[in-house]
Amino acid sequence: MEFIENMYGAFAKLLIKSDLNIEKLGHKLKEKLGLSNLRIENNEYEPYNLVVYAEVLGFEITLTEFKAEKEWVDYSYILEVITSDSFEEIANGHMHDISLWMAHYIAITCGVTVGVLDFSKEAGWTFCRNKVTKKLEINRVGSEN
């Protein structure tokens, strides 16, 4: 059982700022991230909004609409990524948060503004590529500015 006790999973929870509708943003993620099996379907629960979904390398990825307050009001989508079948890892507290790394990667690769919210501090970070300099800009947002 030592093997099971030492297994870890990973998750990321990202906010995405985009003027694209969910279908167009989903297709952009599909193209830029190489998500060949990405699909767009209605959520199985009310209000049955569209959901972008993919499974890749043992991760389940979902993109849904997001309604935020305060600093995050301009962010329209939430992207959630979690290792598949991580029930044991979640129960044992063996989950790595890769949100900051993934926000950095998606901002550079897809050219969208990505936010990472630290729910415990009502704060977070934004990642975006400067269109002029092409460099990544990282900014602190929220109560600890």
Task: Write up this protein.
- 23% of the residues lie in helices and 39% in strands.
- The protein is an alpha+beta fold and 145 residues long.
- Strands 1, 2, 3, 4, 5, 6, 7, 8 and 9 form a 9-stranded mixed beta sheet that branches.
- A hairpin with a 6-residue loop joins β8 and β9 (136-142).
Please indicate the percent range of residues in DSSP E strands (runs of 2 or more): 35-45%
Shape: globular
The number of helical segments is 4
The radius of gyration over CA amounts to 16 Å
* Global mean pLDDT: 86
Query: Ends: how far apart?
Result: 45 Å
SS class: alpha+beta
List SSEs in N-to-C order: HEHEEEEHEHEEE
Taking the sheet with the most strands, its summary is: 9 strands, mixed
Any low-confidence stretches, pLDDT <50, length ≥5? none
Quick one: how many beta strands? 9
Q: Give helix % range.
A: 10-25%
Quick take:
This protein is an alpha+beta fold. Helices cover 23% and strands 39% of the residues. A hairpin with a 6-residue loop joins strand 8 and strand 9 (136-142).
